[in-house]
Each structure stands twice: as structure tokens, then as C-alpha cells.
Description:
By secondary structure, chain A is of the alpha+beta class. In chain A, about 30% of the residues lie in helices and about 35% in strands.
Amino acid sequence: MLDPLAAFDRILLSGRLGEPVxxxxxxxxxxxxxxxxxxxTLAAATAVIGGVPDRLQCRGDAASGCLHAILVFxxxxxxxVTTGPGEEAVDGMLLGNHGVVYGPGAPLSRYQHDAxxxxxxxxxxxxxxxxxxxxxxxxxxxxxxxASSDD
Amino acid sequence: MTDRxxxxxxxxxxxxxxxxxxxxxxxxxxxxxxxxVADEAAAEEERVAxxxxxxxxxxxxxxxxxxxxxxxxxxxxxxxxxxHERRARVAVRCAEAGKHLYLDKPIACTVPGARAIAxxxxxxxxxxxxxxxxxxxxxxxxRQALQDGAVGELRAIHxxxxxxxxxPGTAKLGTPRKQEPFPSRxxxxxxxxxxxxxxxxxxxxxRWLTRAEVRSIWAITAxxxxxxxxxxxxxxxxxxxxxxxxxxxxxxTAGRIGAGSHPRGGPMRLTLVGTRGTLTIxxxxxxxxxxxxxxxxTPPPPDPNxxxxxxxxxxxxxxxxxxxGWVLLREEGESPEDAARFLDCIEQGNEAEVTARDGAALVxxxxxAYVSAxxxxxxxxxxxxxxxxGS
Lengths: 151, 391
């Protein structure tokens, strides 16, 4: 899994936060990598929230790397990911119904990606989000996600 | 020294409203003096009791003859905190009487009502200001950063305002909230419509920083934390995705997330995204952290009349302790800054930085957000057909 989200996931598993309901990730990096990083972060966020994603709203300008996406799950949980130019870093906040974990912005070099990020399942999720992001940005409409086979 | 008479302030609305804070702010400024607490004669019985309670605490007279109060020559400005459902009617009447308006946020609960306030202010030629966070140090820092070109040309703003209050974990989870497009009730003792009540702070910061109108809004509302909100069919959390004039985009994250969810009042921050970089300005930074032998902070026992701890009087009630783990580097105190800046505007004949006209635009965006959350589609706020009603 990606960056501090792995720690968020471990804290969730400890039960201290209750059910995850909202995750915000603020990602910075080179503008030309923004769409890819947005897709990667949405895929990782989906793994943290753990439900079935339903709708994706995405706005911004891919060329300048200033994007945001809101992903809504069938459970009602939601994710907000924003991207912008800057040093490669991620800042996150996970709201559970009993508590919050804050992951203040830190350079990505401080984190190690674990096996999840390079797994076929993660790669498939990232590819799906890339398609949806491009679709949402070109049409301006909310993208509806198709249910995966293991819903 | 000047021999100018202090401005007379009439307070509309009493305890368990933001008037608890506004009255203190005006009372602390030597340029004005509190004259009375008032409300409409037909005000709700419980509201009248709470109005009288504030009047008593401040040593002021209470009157239910609003018209008579508005004809008093020693009343120059009115601080309007009556319940949302009556706010537009009362504010319009105050402007028509030639009084400057200090408006609680949001200024009204309908778009026609908000527009009526802005029109009445402009027709009467009085000054108006909606309470907001634009005079806070962190908002000023964000504006200075933009003016200094710290992020290059601004492309996006992400505003997050959430309050750490209430006891969470009681909402039933598992299904998305069904949002009605045109909510009509806004006053509850134990919940607020948080997309609107806290979202207005974030939205007003975005409007103030960009001076750009909203072209399109997409929003969701949710019940993540509190059974009280769910029982009243009011959301405790909201998200907005905005497209503004000039190709800018923005997001708003707003809500109430539980008293123990933050070391201070709640996460509040602005992220400015520009062509040259990204900058986050956090209301809770810079701070130092204190760890000592004191008992850890625990939320106060719920007040039966204010279980969510909305109001100042509950926050300072016996048994309530302030959070003391994080201490900001800048001097803290009860800042009367927003009210003081309104007095500056009246004295100097300047427009406020968030006027009734701005307040009306904010109401339009917020109410369009509910329509969007109901329909699952983006909305163009000026194109929404609003139900009649100007209260």
C-alpha cells in the first residue's frame, strides 16, 4: 500500500477509529505525474476504506497537475484526493466514526512501498481509476463505477 | 480622542446562539455599547426565555417589540442571530429601518430570503457584514501568500473546516444519506445542517480569497458520526467540488467529527495550489505540544439542553475543561476581531470584506449543494429554480 496509508490501515485494524468513513489525501509532486498519482492514491484509498466504490467526481487541469477527485462508496463512505505541484509528498487524514488519524505531509522518500503497490490487484485498480479519471475530466460528468466480480 | 458617541448595538437572539460570542465581542470594544436584547413578539416561547437570559446576564433590557426597538435613535447597528427560519424577514426589517447589519452565518436559509437581505441593505445604504473566518490570522496569512505569489498563479483551493464537538459513534452506518433537495427546517437543539453551518466558513474563505463566482457545484452529504443528526435528518458531514470563474477549482470539506477527534477545536486549513507549488496554511499551526501529569482531557458531560456542545455557555459550564495539549505560538485569546473590523467599516464608510451580498451568494451555493447532493449531479447555482419563500 501507498505511503502513510499503510499506517492508517494498521490503525484501522486495531479498532481504535471504529468504521472508516472519510479519507483525505493531499498529494504533491511533478505535474506530469499528477494523474498517475491521483489514480494510485484512489486505488490505495479504496483498499483502506474497504468497501465498494460507486461514483467518482473529478475536476481540474491535468496539464498543471492541479486535480481533485471525490470517490463515494456504496456504504456512503467517501474519499477526497487532491494533487498539486511540489515536492513528492502526501498528507492524509482518516476519519473513523470513533476517531481520527492525522498524517501530516512528509516527503515520499520517508516511506517504503510495500508489496500491495506492485501486486496485480493494485495495478488493475490503478488502471481502472486512470480510465475513470480521464473519462470524468473529458466529460465533466460524474463517473459511475462498475461493480467488481467479488462484490 | 474623539467626542463621537459610541455606536448603539441591538442584539436580536440570545443564549444558545452565536449571539453569546458576538455580544461579548461588541461589549469589549469601546467604540460601541450594547443597548438591548430584542426579538419579534411572536418568537418561540423557549427562544424568548433564552433571549431574556442573555439580557439578564448582560444587564440589558429585553423587549419583544422589535419595531419599537428599531425606531430607537440610539440603535445604530443590529446583531442578527434570530433562528434561521425567521432570519431573512427580521434582517430585511432591520435594514429598512436604516440600521447596519452584523449577520450570523449563513445569512438566511432560502435563496430568495438571502437575496432580499442583500437588496434591502443596498436600498437602505447601510453597512453589512456576515460573521466569518476571514479576519483570523490563518486566513490573512493565506491571502498574504497569494498576494506574494507564493504558489504562482492560483489554480485551486481546498478548504477544510471541521469542529471537534459532540460524542460520535452513534450514527447508523452502511448506507448513503438520502438528501432532500430543498431542506426547510434548520433549527434543532441537538444538530445542525453541517454542510451549511460549517461549510459556509470554508466557502466564504474561498470566495474572499478568489473573488470568483461559483460556476458549478457537486456535493455529497453524509451521516458519519451522530445519531442526533440522523434522527433530525440533518447531515453531520459534507463535501463539495466546485468550479469557479476563471478556470479555478476548489473543494470544501465540512462537518462535526466528535469532541475527542482533535487536540484543539478541529481541523481547519486552506491549501492553495498554484502553477509554482502547493501551500497549506493550518489554523492550528505552528504549535507546541504539552505532555504532563495533568489528567487527560475528557469531553464534558453532555448538557441536556445542548448535548452537542454547540454554544459557548456550554463550553465554559462547570465540569467543562479546555483542551490544553496544543498551544499555538501566537498569542491566543477570545478574538473579537470580526466584530471590530465591522465597526471599522462603519466608522470609515467602507464595505465589509464579507457583505450581505457575499452572504447571499454563499447561501445560493450552499443550497445548490443540497440540490446536487439530492440529484447526484453537478449544479449551476444561478440556474437552480428555487421554491418560493423569503423567510
